[in-house]
Inverse folding.
């Protein structure tokens, strides 16, 4: 997601639909953070961090887990733990690891990307994996890893599509990493457990600071050996944190209280799309809304003045041409949606 234009307001913010990363900790989460027992996590003796890592590993169906400062850091540590310099990552041509993470695996790890087309449902065609994997030839990079993503632009990629791509990767001897920044949104939408979703993956990153509502943090999970290597990479990129049990407590609270409620965000996104569809100047299809994202088409030249108009009224959006992405979250409920739609109607009146 690229950011542009005016995104802050001098007035109190009434609605913020830029992303689900803007959530504030709930009172219950703040209380859990205040009460957290802490230690020095670089020494491995922060009990709350250890508890979160154990809890997350069990939830995700993996042997071990590691707390990261961000999803980008989690993906980077995974890619560098799986791949050596001169090796190659197969991924979608608009997946986050390829377009929105500053090329970290290439810059820091000497790892190439081999982008492939992404289908309309967010999946990767196994035939494209066949075409992209490199032969055993000294002229080529060594294909080592496939990365998958779910959700993808708010869509929940079907489990069959995930499994088909992962299985074909296995046929070629590839490892599989799963960018699950909004994994729980996909699981809630599809009605499956995280462990079932990830059965074909060697590792997974899960953001705690998006729909799950923590102030910061992400989980990387995989085998014990892979997590050991990722731990070393985390140190290399400056990710060692000290008394971080305060954040880990927020993560535990989120996993206990904020997964099932993601269905509310999905329902609110559908409500938003249905109401926006009544504004003639906006193009939106409620049938395309699957989780917590709405993509609304705007008339040519409307994005910048609309963003400024809303900002002046304490409503924040990211500018998009020709579409804007609107994201619902635990701080954006039905009342905020109705207020947002009212201001949109006023702009286009």
């Amino acid at each position: 997601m690229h950011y542009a234009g005016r995104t802050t307001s001098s007035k109190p913010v009434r609605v913020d639909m830029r992303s689900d990363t803007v959530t504030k900790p709930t009172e219950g989460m703040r209380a859990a953070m205040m009460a957290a027992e802490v230690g020095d996590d670089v020494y491995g003796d922060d009990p709350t961090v250890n508890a979160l890592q154990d809890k997350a590993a069990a939830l995700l169906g993996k042997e071990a887990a590691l707390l990261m400062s961000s999803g980008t850091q989690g993906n980077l540590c995974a890619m560098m733990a799986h791949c050596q310099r001169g090796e190659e990552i197969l991924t979608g041509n608009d997946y986050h690891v390829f377009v929105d993470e500053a090329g970290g695996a290439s810059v820091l790890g000497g790892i190439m990307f081999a982008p492939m087309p992404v289908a309309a449902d967010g999946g990767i065609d196994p035939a494209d994996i066949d075409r992209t994997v490199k032969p055993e030839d000294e002229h080529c990079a060594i294909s080592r890893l496939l990365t998958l993503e779910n959700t993808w632009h708010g869509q929940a990629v079907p489990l069959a599509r995930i499994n088909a791509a992962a299985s074909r990767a296995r046929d070629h001897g590839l490892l599989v990493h799963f960018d699950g920044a909004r994994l729980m949104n996909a699981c809630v939408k599809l009605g499956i457990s995280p462990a079932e979703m990830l059965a074909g993956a060697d590792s997974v990153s899960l953001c705690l600071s998006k729909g799950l509502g923590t102030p910061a943090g992400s989980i990387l999970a995989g085998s014990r050996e892979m997590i050991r290597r990722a731990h070393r990479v985390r140190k290399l990129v400056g990710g060692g944190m000290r008394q971080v049990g305060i954040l880990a407590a927020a993560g535990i609270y989120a996993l206990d209280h904020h997964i099932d409620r993601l269905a509310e965000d999905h329902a609110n996104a559908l409500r938003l799309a249905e109401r926006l569809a009544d504004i003639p100047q906006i193009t939106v299809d409620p049938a395309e809304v699957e989780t917590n994202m709405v993509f609304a088409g705007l008339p040519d030249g409307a994005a910048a003045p609309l963003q400024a108009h809303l900002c002046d009224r304490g409503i924040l959006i990211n500018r998009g041409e020709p579409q804007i992405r609107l994201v619902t979250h635990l701080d954006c409920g039905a009342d905020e949606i109705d207020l947002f739609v009212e201001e949109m109607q006023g702009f286009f009146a």
Remarks:
- The first strand starts at residue 15 and ends at 16.
- Residues 36 and 246 are 6 Å apart (CA to CA).
- The radius of gyration is 21 Å.
- The longest helix spans residues 262-276.
